[in-house]
Amino acid sequence: MGVVSLILGIVGVVLAVLAFVPSIGFFNWISGIVGLVGVVLGILGLKEKGVAIVGLIISAVVLVFAVLRLIGLF
User: Fold this and answer.
1) Would you say 2 and 51 are in contact if contact means Cβ atoms under 8 Å apart?
2) How many domains does the chain fold into?
3) CA-CA distances (angstroms) from residue 74 to 66, 67, 68?
């Protein structure tokens, strides 16, 4: 679960960066969903300490940026 959380965190970062392009802003919703799933899987996979913690942190940052972008602070 930790590795999947890390992969989802990296994919979420790419989608969050792509969401800053005005014509494909719908990626913001997708990055938020990917970030949320990454956070949940990171919490569930805390038995693998190193990978799961890194995936959890990256996914949480993606989720925060997606939420801030959705409410209009970015």
Assistant:
1) yes
2) 1
3) 9, 10, 6
Measured from the Cβ of residue 50, the count of other Cβ atoms closer than 10 Å reads: 9
Distance CA 42, CA 73 (A): 26
Q: What is the span of the domain harbouring residue 37?
A: 2-70
pTM: 0.89
Nearest-CA neighbor of 5 among 32, 15, 27, 46? 46
Nearest alpha carbon to residue 58 among 30, 31, 35:
35
**Token pair listed for 67:** 């939420």
- pLDDT grade, residue 25 (50/70/90)? confident
d(CA 58, CA 55): 5
Average pLDDT over residues 30-37: 94
